[in-house]
Specification:
This protein is mainly β and about 140 residues long. Helices cover about 0% and strands about 50% of the residues. It has one domain (about 5-140). The chain binds zinc ion (ZN).
């Protein structure tokens, strides 16, 4: 018997750091433009010296807008059966990013636009092998 493992849905997207969960992106050291996910070059048309360094974002944000996903999304989206509706939102981060993510709530109907939210790393689904696959979400605080 093997022990179930926890794996991120994608490498290099988020991490549990000593300070808590963070999104892994990059930032141009010339013009300060932040990127999530990481960018290879700076896309700011007014920046003439693209120099990117790794940057961490989060955990605090504000829910700009959201909707509730009432029906199962088509492949390649994955979720636990039976499907449960969830809120998906656009979260403004103080670092200057707007990020699309699931909003972790007990009841998606209780989601409040404009609410303060905090980054969390939670299960996205359990694989057929019994492994927990995690992703980043924002929890309404
Ligand atoms: Zn730049």
């Amino acid at each position: 018997m093997t022990t179930p493992t926890t794996t991120p849905v994608a490498e290099g997207l988020f991490a549990e750091t000593a300070a808590g969960p963070r999104l892994l992106g990059s930032k141009c050291t010339t013009c300060e433009t932040p990127y999530f996910p990481k960018a290879a070059i700076c896309h700011n048309p007014n920046c003439n010296d693209s120099k990117l360094e790794d940057a961490e974002f989060g955990p605090h944000g504000k829910l700009w807008s959201y909707t509730v996903q009432y029906y199962p999304p088509p492949p390649p989206a994955k979720y636990d059966e039976p499907y449960k509706p969830y809120a998906i939102g656009l979260i403004d981060l103080p670092e200057g990013l707007r990020v699309l993510a699931q909003v972790s709530t007990v009841d998606p109907e209780s989601t409040v636009g404009g609410a303060d939210v905090e980054l969390v790393i939670e299960r996205l689904y359990t694989s057929p092998e019994g492994n927990e696959v995690t992703t980043f979400k924002f929890r309404q605080s």
